[in-house]
Amino acid sequence: MTDMTLQRAAGEVRTDTAERVAKGLKRRYAAERRFRTYGLIAVCTALSFLAILLISIVGKGYTAFQQTKMQLEVHFDESIIAPNGTTDAAALAKADYNGIVKASLRKTFPEVKSRRDKRALYGIVSGGAGYEIYKMILEDPSLIGQTKKVWLSASADIDVLIKGQIDRSSPETERRVKDNEIAWVDRLAAQGAIEKQFNTTLFTAGDSRDPEQAGIWGAVVGSFFTLIVTLAISFPLGVMAAVYLEEFAPRNKLTDLIEVNINNLAAVPSIVFGLLGLAVFLNFFGLPRSAPLVGGMVLSLMTLPTIIIASRAALKAVPPSIREAALGIGASKMQMVTDHVLPSAMPGMLTGTIIGMAQALGETAPLLMIGMVAFIVDIPGGPLDPATVLPVQVYLWADSPERAFVERTSAAIMVLLGFLVCMNLIAILLRKKFERRW
């Protein structure tokens, strides 16, 4: 009887234990499912915000890749362009090409008589239309004396109107384009003299006060020179510092202090590097402001910690057996590093360098401190010429009051994001192609 009672009690204990274990497993599984659900919600939320951001940028910026053009019958008046019969570039540059454009508009709309209406009529074409006529004459001097229909850029307000970004039904006092200007544009549109063409100016011109004449090419060239300087300084210095710290430096308090400072520098706000560049490169050494050389030097200081940390991680990933084998066949420590370890770690170093360069490409704050926020119209011809970069160009356009700059700001952001995506894609491809599994 006692044995049966003990067996029954033991069975009850085992059943109770199994039930507690099952309940515990059920709670753990439920917690795991909740954790996965929360993670999935977080990822979906992040992707949703990213999609909203990209849709907003693309929705506002895709129209900047088109520019409204209007066709006018232009008389290339010889008495204005080449009154002395001279057609060299210096003489042609002195002609009043804006006067030719105004004469064409007066001929197209002969009913416009008052000075006020004429001023409004002249405003429907771009302020750079005269320069477009000048370029046509330079390319083909035989146009002088002829009358020909040509396509000229519309003003920014007309461009915005044609793209549907101005409500025509709103009161005239609440919009920049007046009723008479809309009537003139509609008349040209009815004649087939208004159309939207690919905006080559956006990719071939520098900055301008007029949105229809503004382009990103000057900022792209400035970014190129700045990144070249950054790469030329940060990559060799970063790799040499990483090799020394990882392969040659003794383990003591000094190297520990250096490592801590390198890790801390990677988290320093970028504007601090701009202040350092302002104090040292500009004020102390007297280097030129707004120059890609100075911008590259500042960005190289900011990029160095990233490259050093990535390079050290790549060196640590090389198996010790490679070092031991090299030393075992009689190689010196320098030969072991340069001939065996460094080539094996180079793919990881290149990946870290490209990521650091992509980070430098998107920086604005340090460059603002050294004057690269200046209004630069000319395309820079070298690292010492005044220039700006793409992020700063976005900053400048975003601060402009003209509505037409909104779409150009978004278009510049799209181009910048395209460059960043390409650089990160190159880093991924390099890692996949040259990565070694030890």
Q: Could you characterize the architecture of this molecule?
A:
With 438 residues, the protein is mainly alpha-helical. Helices cover 66% and strands 5% of the residues. Strands 2-1-3 form a three-stranded antiparallel beta sheet. The mean pLDDT is 88.
The major β-sheet equals: 3 strands, antiparallel
The CATH class assignment of the largest domain is Mainly Alpha
Helix content: 55-70%
> What are the secondary-structure elements, in order, as H or E?
HEHHHHHEHHEHHHHHHHHHH
Quote the CATH topology of the largest domain.
Answer: MetI-like fold
> How many domains comprise the coordinates?
3
Counting helices, strands and paired strands, the structural category is mainly alpha
CATH fourth-tier homologous superfamily of the largest domain: MetI-like
Strand fraction: 5-15%
The stretches of 5 or more residues where confidence is low (pLDDT under 50) are none
What is the average of the pLDDT values? 88
Order of the strands making up the biggest sheet: 2-1-3
What is the number of helices? 18
End-to-end distance: 67 Å
What is the CATH architecture descriptor of the largest domain?
Answer: Orthogonal Bundle
Rg (CA only): 33 Å
Shape: flat
- What's the count of strands? 3
Summarize the structure.
With about 450 residues, the protein is mainly alpha-helical. Helix content is about 65%, strand content about 5%. The protein has a three-stranded antiparallel beta sheet.
What's the SSE blueprint?
Elements: H1 2-61, E1 66-75, H2 78-81, H3 89-92, H4 97-108, H5 115-122, H6 129-139, E2 147-153, H7 156-162, H8 179-190, E3 194-198, H9 201-204, H10 217-248, H11 253-265, H12 270-284, H13 292-316, H14 320-328, H15 333-361, H16 365-369, H17 390-398, H18 404-434
Antiparallel strand pairs: 1-2, 1-3
Helix pairs in contact: 1-18, 4-6, 10-13, 10-15, 10-17, 12-13, 13-15, 14-15, 15-18, 17-18
